[in-house]
Inverse folding.
């Protein structure tokens, strides 16, 4: 066809460096930060992927990236609150296989449209904790724009930012876990 480039391989050349065509920035290379937090917004795990990758494909890797064991399990088990982008059976299976109870709001469909604006179910309040943690990561200017060419270097700076967030969050707390 006219103006059609050569076919590309699945995954692309940038997958090894966690880059991909950004759908919101004229297809420039970009990255996406996936963040897992506890109930207080403290980062527990972080993963990078290309900007063109769907979040649901990174959930299993994100859940496996947790380095510290969670606090003692409660009678109800660990709760995992996700947004509508994870409303797939594959995500629910990945969460339950790791001992988490997933809480995922349903995606909009013809049978079940989105709640109207201002309705409490439109944006569940538990998701706010993760959004605040992403804003804390964005305060580190080096993390807002990726300048590193290697994925390992970029991930190292993200983990350093997470360590600083944890330190600042727990600095005035007597018992950090429990």
């Amino acid at each position: 066809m006219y103006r059609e480039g050569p076919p590309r391989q699945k995954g692309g050349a940038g997958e090894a460096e966690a880059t991909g065509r950004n759908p919101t920035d004229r297809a420039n290379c970009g990255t996406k930060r996936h963040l897992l937090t506890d109930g207080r917004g403290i980062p527990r795990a972080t993963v990078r992927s290309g900007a063109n990758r769907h979040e649901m494909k990174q959930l299993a890797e994100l859940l496996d990236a947790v380095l510290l064991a969670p606090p003692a399990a409660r009678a109800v088990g660990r709760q995992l609150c996700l947004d509508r982008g994870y409303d797939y059976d594959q995500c629910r299976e990945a969460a339950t296989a790791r001992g988490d109870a997933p809480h995922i709001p349903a995606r909009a469909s013809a049978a079940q449209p989105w709640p109207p604006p201002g309705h409490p179910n439109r944006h569940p309040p538990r998701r706010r904790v993760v959004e605040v943690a992403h804003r804390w990561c964005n305060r580190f200017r080096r993390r807002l724009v990726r300048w590193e060419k290697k994925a390992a270097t970029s991930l190292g700076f993200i983990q350093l930012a997470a360590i600083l967030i944890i330190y600042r969050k727990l600095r005035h707390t007597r018992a950090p876990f429990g």
